[in-house]
Design a protein that fits this description.
Elements: E1 3-8, H1 15-27, E2 30-36, H2 47-60, E3 66-71, H3 75-82, E4 86-90, H4 94-110, E5 115-119, H5 130-138, H6 149-160
Parallel strand pairs: 1-2, 2-3, 4-5
Length: about 160
């Protein structure tokens, strides 16, 4: 069974993330959405909330063969723990490339048997980021084209507090 890990902070998960997951399922038998704890990034949602929202979004879209798990370690160690040798990463723009290239090469130095595979988002999501979604939500903008309804609801609740 071919499996791939899709890591990220997913604060929150967006339609852009879900687009990459759906497309990865065309090539891989299973996608593990690995939600990084990454408290240093000061996420809007707690680690547990981000894991829960990712699970709800996967369920809302009825995606099969997708597992959501949290991790709080080096990504390479999590991959080895799960016996998976492929990492999925999205590239939206040139700025992403620089960071992602650095991470892929560092991961290769740490564990040469694990490959990083880059996907370019579908055109309608090429600009989309979780930061942008949070800003739209903060000011009461329409989120329907950017996130599943479960995430929209959670964002509305967060910003109404």
């Amino acid at each position: 069974m071919k499996k791939i890990i899709y890591p990220g902070s997913f604060d929150p998960i967006t339609n852009g993330h879900l687009d990459l997951i759906k497309r990865a399922l065309i090539i891989f038998d299973e996608v593990i959405v690995a939600v990084a704890k990454r408290e240093e990034k000061r996420p809007l949602f707690s680690w547990e909330e981000r894991i829960d929202l990712a699970k709800k979004a996967i369920k809302e879209l009825d995606l099969k063969n997708v597992v959501v798990e949290g991790y709080n370690s080096l990504l390479i160690d999590f991959c080895k723990e799960k016996n998976i040798f492929a990492i999925l990463r999205g590239l939206r723009a040139v700025a992403d490339f620089d960071y992602e290239f650095q991470m892929a090469l560092t991961n290769r130095k740490l564990s040469p048997e694990i490959e990083t595979i880059f996907f370019v988002p579908s055109p309608e999501y090429i600009f989309l980021s979780a930061s942008l979604v949070k800003e739209i939500a903060k000011y009461g903008g329409c989120l329907k084209k950017f996130v599943p309804s479960c995430v929209e609801k959670a964002l509305r609740e967060k910003f109404s507090q």
